[in-house]
UniProtKB/TrEMBL annotation:
<dbReference type="InterPro" id="IPR002881">
    <property type="entry name" value="DUF58"/>
</dbReference>
<dbReference type="InterPro" id="IPR036465">
    <property type="entry name" value="vWFA_dom_sf"/>
</dbReference>
<feature type="domain" description="DUF58">
    <location>
        <begin position="45"/>
        <end position="245"/>
    </location>
</feature>
<dbReference type="Pfam" id="PF01882">
    <property type="entry name" value="DUF58"/>
</dbReference>
<protein>
    <recommendedName>
        <fullName>DUF58 domain-containing protein</fullName>
    </recommendedName>
</protein>
Length: 295
């Protein structure tokens, strides 16, 4: 992956839509167009254009031959809703090398939104912060994407996760199968994240969980620190220079293994993402499951 697409470089782009386009265009470079455009799409038939149809579905070759407007019906019937859910609780303020989890999450969500909009699918956005949930309903229009990026720009981490989240807060509009993308650090007090993910899966949605972590966080690199603070509870732990790296690493591995095992048992895809790593792995995982749900 080019250094131009490193998280530090991408997050330096203040225009969120421009940053998303940079990530996606860089990811798509070198990939065959037919592999990306209309993934899992099987053409069925044409039908006459209706005023409510998206202009992107028009077949201009058919128009050139017949002087009439037609749309490819299969594209309309197989379009899906994508729901991006961001954990914006206090723990997402954790920062390494100038990159915070919440900023990585915002830019990853913007990139996913840009990619799904290219595919002609409707994208929704939900954020959990300060014990509350805000949701921007799924739409396909360009104006909706402007609101999508605006909501991400205004998103700030704070507070704790709600003890009992109302699942209907995430899926406004007609009930249909969705691709749910949850971006979180999996720090919870009473299985709040796990309960949400389990509920999404029980509703029949395809679910991807992206686990944001930092390299210091994974390897107990706390040299130079006298104490660490739990960003959600405010609890301070004095280090006194006595962090057992081996014991810490074992505890970290047990923590992530338990998460992965639980999600696998519920058919939820799990991917750990380092704050220092480019976002291409997340985009690849997303497209894999995007293709699966469109079959």
């Amino acid at each position: 992956m080019s250094k131009l697409l490193s998280p530090a470089t991408i997050l330096a782009i203040r225009d969120l839509q421009l940053a998303a386009r940079t990530v996606v265009d860089g990811f798509l470079t070198g990939m065959h167009a037919s592999r990306m455009k209309g993934v899992g799409l099987e053409f069925s038939q044409y039908r006459s254009y209706q005023p409510s149809d998206d202009l992107r579905w028009l077949d201009w070759k058919m128009y050139a031959r017949s002087d009439r407007y037609y749309v490819r019906q299969s594209e309309i019937e197989t379009s899906i809703d994508i729901q991006v859910v961001i954990d914006a609780s206090n723990s997402m303020l954790h920062t390494e090398e100038g990159i915070s989890k919440i900023d990585y999450a915002r830019y990853l969500a913007a990139s996913l939104g840009y990619l799904t909009h290219l595919q002609g699918d409707a994208t929704a956005l939900s954020a959990i912060s300060n014990g509350d949930i805000t949701t921007l309903a799924a739409r396909r229009e360009a104006r909706h994407m402007a609101r999508f990026y605006y909501q991400l720009e205004q998103l700030h981490a704070g507070g704790r996760l709600p003890e009992q989240a109302n699942i209907t807060s995430f899926t406004t509009g007609p009930h249909k199968r969705r691709l749910m993308v949850f971006i979180t650090d999996f720090y919870e007090h009473n299985a709040e994240v796990m309960r949400l993910l389990d509920a999404f899966a029980a509703m029949g949605h395809e679910v991807i969980a992206f686990h944001l972590t930092g390299q210091q966080e994974q390897s107990a690199r706390f040299s130079g620190y006298q104490a660490v603070e739990d960003l959600e509870t405010g609890e301070v732990l004095q280090l006194d220079g006595n962090v057992d790296a081996t014991q810490y690493t074992q505890a970290w591995q047990a923590f992530t293994v338990n998460i992965h095992r639980h999600l696998m048992e519920n058919n939820i895809h799990y991917r750990m993402l380092s704050l220092q790593a480019p976002m291409d792995m997340a985009l690849r995982d997303f497209l894999l499951h995007y293709s699966k749900i469109r079959r």
